Every structure is written in structure tokens, then in C-alpha cells.
Hints:
mainly alpha
Amino acid sequence: MSLGQMLGELDMKNRLPLIGQGTIGAIIGSTCCLLPAVAIAIGLSGGIAATLVSLSRFRLYGLIAGVVFIAIASLISIRRSKSCCTEEEYKRRQIAVPLTMLISFGAVYGLTMYLIIPLLYRVS
Length: 124
């Protein structure tokens, strides 16, 4: 069975919470860089913005926290689906659930880090 077939078997009702959880993980992962950009864009004082910019040294820790959030959310989602589906569908969900979260995490994290944050710095 191909990867597309596995992801296609999750209906939209089941896929949206997974995408949301991946998005939350990406926001957690990019917080260290997103907060200073937002502070500068809304015009907070230079001292506050400079203090927030110093958070960028914790970028790796934020990324790890986002991935850990996704891992925990994946485990919870997979355990919940064990009681409501067949054994074959459960095996497919063991791959589809974390993969859906990781794809949404990567997409949102990439957009945030390489599109939104540079745009926020240009606004100021």
C-alpha cells in the first residue's frame, strides 16, 4: 500500500485535528523566533525586542519541544483509535497519524521560519 493511499484513508473529520496538532507543534517550535518578530512588528520598545531576540539561542530547544508535542499527540491519537477501528485500519493509522502531523508541522514551521518571520521584520 502506498503512502498516498494510507493518508487518503483518513477522512477529513479525522485529519483536521491531526493537522491542528501539527500546527500547534510548529508554533511551539518557532516561538523563539516568532515572538521577537511580532514584538518588533507591533512596535514594542527596543529593549523588549532585544530581550526577545536573545531567545533565538534556544531555537533547538523549541524545535525539540514541538517534536515532542507531536510525538505525545500522536501516541494519544493512536491509542484512542485502537478502540474504534479494525486491526488492519489500526495498523494503517499507526503510520498515517504521525505522518500527517509531521507533514503539517514541517509545512507550518517552514512557512513561519522562512516566510512569516522575515515579512514581520520587514514591516517594522
